[in-house]
Automatic annotation (TrEMBL):
The species this protein was found in: Sparus aurata (Gilthead sea bream)
GO cellular component entries: cytoplasm
Record-annotated ApaG domain positions: 269-399
Keyword tags: Ubl conjugation pathway
Keyword Signal: no
InterPro entries: ApaG_domain, ApaG_sf, F-box-like_dom_sf, F-box_SCF_Substrate_Recog, Knr4/Smi1-like_dom, Knr4/Smi1-like_sf
Keyword Lyase in record: no
Pathway: Protein modification; protein ubiquitination
Name of the featured protein: F-box protein 3
Short name of any one Pfam family annotated for the protein: DUF525
């Protein structure tokens, strides 16, 4: 028998070769396992649901695996991953709500813009669009130029406003380069008042980048480019999702298939016996100014008698009393017959609503008071019904960086107000091609009957 002897070096080399082979086999196994895990359907299903809000029905319709579906969406929308689920969910909630309450608005929504179209718009205006704005417009490219507008309405007897959410092409046509509004892109537009909300694409002339605002010309400045601003949002994402939340939660009432931007403080309710009074308010930037200080509000009051009240509790409103306190401490008391020229009769289950308006020279005030009623069965039985205290506070506002003061210009606003009738008024709005925003000429010769 032949015996083979190996040196220690040969043995070491042999062991090393075996170890290398084993290591390679192990690495291959681990790599294969990792590859299998990386395409594990439950994992990618979770990611597709989290980032793209996709359902099992979406995957079945696509005909590909969850892994491939995620890759498809990522290639198209990957840059918007932090915004997409929030904005997509907001749009879906809004559309679901509108389908039930304002179905004609659904037809006015436009299909999403493409990435190429948004890039072309950026090249056209010479400014970068924020990613949250781009993301939203990939989902829906705004709204067709129709009434009512998606971004809310307001109606008084001789004043009507309804803001359309502009598509990106129309918005680019109204992109501002003039002094005082440089690098500002319109977000909304109202045909009747010329009112627009804008988004600042650069931090210039006292604005912060990407914040949204209503422009308000300074009527006391010598320079016509002196523009004050009522701030409505710090970025597009906040601006849009806050609005949608207020719509879908019922914060804004739906009146004749339109969204009205009245805000109701849930604590602003008072019940006296069988009668409950609640109040909601709204600030009207198109009829307000910072210089001179002139802040315009409308408020909507709901008076309701409990359906469980006795028929003998039926009554009629005779008069109103208001106590108004401004932020500088001034107090005013107002009283008069009826409400907006009416003397509503309240019976069990009856609801009476009306709108009125007020102007003041301080950024905030609050009102409270009572109505005087008499019983129909006994006119001698007179009683008061409390009106809860409600606050009216204008949005945050900011002055331009530099303003040259001239002799103040004073004016009065006039409104013969009663329950809003939804009629469209032919305002002297600015030319649509310019989209300059607020129409201060609408203030000329107007009057507001305070606290009616």
């Amino acid at each position: 028998m032949e015996v083979t002897y190996r040196s220690s070096a040969q043995l070491a080399t042999s062991r090393s070769g075996h170890l290398t082979l084993l290591h390679f086999i192990n690495c291959s196994f681990v790599s294969r396992r990792l590859n299998e895990l990386s395409k594990h359907n439950p994992l990618w299903r979770t990611l597709c649901s989290k980032h793209w809000l996709l359902s099992d029905a979406d995957r079945l319709q696509s005909g590909v695996s969850w892994y491939c579906l995620f890759k498809q969406y990522y290639r198209d929308l990957g840059r918007y991953m932090q915004y997409y689920p929030v904005l997509k969910r907001a749009w879906e909630q809004l559309k679901s709500f509108l389908q039930q309450t304002c179905p004609r608005m659904i037809a006015s929504l436009k299909e999403g813009a493409t990435e190429v179209e948004l890039n072309d718009i950026e090249a056209q205006i010479g400014c970068r669009l924020p990613d949250d704005y781009r993301c939203s417009y990939r989902i829906h490219n705004g709204q067709k130029l129709v009434i009512p507008g998606l971004m809310g309405s307001m109606s008084l007897s001789n004043h009507y406003r309804s803001e359309v959410l502009l598509d990106v092409e129309t918005a680019a046509g109204g992109f501002q380069q003039r002094k005082g509004m440089r690098r500002c892109l319109p977000l909304t537009f109202c045909f009747h008042t010329g009112l627009s909300q804008y988004m600042a694409l650069e931090p210039a002339e006292g604005r912060r980048m990407f914040e949204s605002f209503y422009p308000c010309p300074d009527q006391t400045a010598q320079d016509p480019s002196a523009i004050d601003m009522f701030i409505t949002g710090s970025c597009f994402l906040e601006w849009f999702t806050t609005y949608v939340h207020n719509v879908v939660t019922g914060e804004y009432p739906i009146i004749r298939d339109q969204i009205f931007r009245y805000v109701h403080d849930k604590g602003c309710v008072a019940t006296t016996g069988d009668i409950t009074v609640s109040v909601s308010t709204s600030f009207l930037p198109e009829l307000s100014s910072v210089h001179p200080p002139h802040f315009f509000f409308t408020y909507r009051i709901r008076i309701e008698m409990s359906s469980g009240a006795s028929p003998e509790a039926a009554c009629q409103l005779d008069s109103r009393y208001w106590k108004i306190t401004t932020s500088d401490g001034n107090v005013e008391e107002v009283q008069g017959p009826g409400v907006v020229g009416e003397f509503p009769v309240m019976t069990p289950g009856k609801v009476h609503e009306y709108a009125s308006c007020t102007t003041f020279s301080t950024p905030s005030e609050y009102m409270e008071g009572h109505y005087t009623f008499h019983r129909l069965a006994n006119k001698e039985e007179v009683f008061h019904v409390a009106i809860p205290r409600f606050h009216m506070v204008c949005p945050p506002f900011r002055e331009p960086v530099v303003r040259t003061v001239k002799t103040p210009l004073f004016y009065t606003t006039r409104f013969d107000d009663h329950d809003d009738d939804g009629e469209y008024c032919d305002g002297d709005g600015d030319d649509f091609g310019d989209l300059r925003g607020i129409n201060m000429a609408a203030l000329e010769g107007a009057w507001c009957p305070r606290h009616i």
